[in-house]
Known about the structure:
By secondary structure, the chain is of the alpha+beta class. The chain has one domain: Alpha-Beta Complex (Creatine Amidinohydrolase), CATH 3.90.230.10. Helices cover 26% and strands 25% of the residues. It has a five-stranded antiparallel sheet with strand order 8-7-9-14-15. 48% of the residues are buried. The model is unreliable at 253-261 (pLDDT under 50). Bound molecules: magnesium ion (2 copies). Residues 107, 170, 201, 203, 234 line the site of one magnesium ion (MG).
Amino acid sequence: xxxxxxxxxxxxxxxxxxxxxxxxxxxxxxxxxxxxxxxxxxxxxxxxxxxxxxxxxxxxxxxxxxxxxxxxxxxxxxxxxxxxxxxxxxxxxxxxxxxxxxxxxxxxxxxxxxxxxxxxxxxxxxxxxxxxxxxxxxxxxxxxxxxxxxxxxxxxxxxxxxxxxxxxxxxxxxxxxxxxxxxxxxxxxxxxxxxxxxxxxxxxxxxxxxxxxxxxxxxxxxxxxxxxxxxxxxxxxxxxxxxxxxxxxxxxxxxxxxxxx
Length: 261
Ligand code: MG
Ligand code: MG
């Protein structure tokens, strides 16, 4: 069922979502060469729980062992935090965070650089971040879900990178995954109508090489089949009368190079 949220409910979602935006600002400083993905997970969990009534949604969700998903390089989503996974110069690492506060969920992801990255990697991050920005601009009443995927395609077209088509965005609210699905490919004017009060997680995932994916033996980690790098940027967005509203920005927006929202 496609559920519309009241203005008050949108505020509730933003209340939790701001925790993720603020956490990402902290992680921009924290993520350095030699840090382990377990250390990132522990920091994220403590940061989330330090806010009144906030919990990390992914902990235990369908049995997931971490508080947040941490995916390195060719890993696209659902990477499991590990004390033996130490980040190296030139790596990229995606942190995907869900927060539930007073019954309302928010979901956001960002791919971080570890030290200096190669030029192509920098380009991958730029294109993926721009794809999210372009997609968010389509989240207006009277538009269609297909407009969002079309905007992602338009941004990626001509770069040589590939959109991961088997993983999609989603509606979000009392549950982290609600209707509708929000694919990263689409045609303008197609798919469900966007209406005021819809809240959706928009999340383009882009790879340098193939768009084919596979799941590792751990049953969780999804990687590109050719092990090429992939990036992932996600925001929870409300379709409002006066346009899209990002609900997972920091309270005090932090402007940093290479990432626009
Ligand atoms: Mg997410
Ligand atoms: Mg999501």
